[in-house]
Amino acid sequence: xxxxxxxxxxxxxxxxxxxxxxxxxxxxxxxxFLQLRDGTGTIQGVLVKNQVDPAIWxxxxxxxxxxxxxxxxxxxxDERAPxxxxxxxxKIETIQLAEEYPIANKEHGTDFLMDHRHLWIRSSRQNAxxxxxAEIVRSIRGYLDQNNFTLVDPPILTPSSxxxxxxxxxxxxxxxxxxxxQSGQLYMExxxxxxxxxYSFGPxxxxxxxxxxxxxxxxxxxxxxxxxxxxxxxxKVQEEMVSYAVQQVLANCASELKLLGRDxxxxxxxxxxxxxxxxxxxxxLLHREGFPEFQWGEDFGAPHETKIAESFDKPVFITNxxxxxxxxYMKPDPNRPEVVLCSDxxxxxxxxxxxxGSQRIDDPELLAERFKEYDLSDEAYRWYLDLRKYGSVPHSxxxxxxxxxxxxxxxxxxxxxxxxFPRMLNRLYP
Length: 430
Ligand code: 4AD
Ligand code: MG
Known about the structure:
By secondary structure, the protein is an alpha+beta fold. It has helices at about 55-60, 110-115, 115-120, 125-145, 185-195, 230-250, 255-260, 265-270, 280-290, 300-310, 365-375, 380-385, 400-410, and strands at about 1-5, 15-25, 30-35, 40-50, 70-75, 85-95, 150, 155-160, 170-175, 175-180, 195-205, 220-225, 275-280, 315-320, 330-335, 335-340, 340-345, 350-360, 395-400.
């Protein structure tokens, strides 16, 4: 019977075959303890010298770190084992004897590990992070699917920008110029007019020369967009969705969170509703708490966001930013056009902005004015203006940055560990 380590509990007392890699080994002379992993979990295989064929004993002795093998044995419950089970090995068959493995069981520098990312993802910590990433994606998609959002995939190659022109990745598209998408939002607005509630989930690109623990060049965004929804309701969807994802990770990834040493008490508090403060209130807070020089109209940097988040043990919405520092498509507050109907969701514990969202301009004349102000060509955005000519409706949406969300939920120092193969300033390999 071919089993995986994850479901060994079903095979107690039975003989099974596992496909596995050897990640560590100890021997007492009469007993060999093989630490095996198969990607679904880890288990200790026990070989007793006078109980197995001498050829098998010898083969086991030759196994190097990360050698691949088939191993046969009987599954036994063992309270002391981290997984609760051990395997009494009766037979092994080496598939490949691995060359000397570059990632030994010792400390390595980050650059070295990043150069070996294709191997590093096998290690238990990296494995746990990427499993939590998968769980966050699964839960967010589950939340949106259950709430009648239709998945719509926007293009990756685009003729124009969605989030400003300073960080576009340029490429030739035969004779035309093209850019890698910064956000699927504009296309999701078209989709919302066709399907009502929609979301996209895909890679987005920003050619930003920032080398911070929050920035990637290529990152994944979940972008819901909703017709007939205003900014207030938009925030409700965001807080519900994020609470659901955190609670699902707590329920389904307990062993991974434990391995990472994550404080789960902090995560248990993440339940909607989340606090809201206006940009104006946030500026007052900064004036009181160590940033007396901060000027109304400036954008918040990482230290400001961290300071604001310190006052809360849940994510906090900062609402109604000055119009001048936000994107061209955001709807101005009708009572106060110098601010827009928007919010950034700032994660607790210094993880910064994980969501940016807003109500969108629905008036064709105001949008056309914005194109002029922002120097965006009418030609390139004609289709986007069409959405305001043929049955324009109030609508809102947001973008959740997956990697920053994973970093926060896992409690990591840097986003580089939250994505299988990070693309950063000075890193395109492997
Ligand atoms: O705030 P941003 O730029 O918003 C948009 O792109 C909107 N068009 C989204 C929408 O309304 N549909 O980006 C959204 C989120 C940020 O809050 C952040 O979490 C993440 O994307 N993000 C990055 N993550 C990693 N590296 C970067 N360079 C990022 N830039 C943005
Ligand atoms: Mg933003």
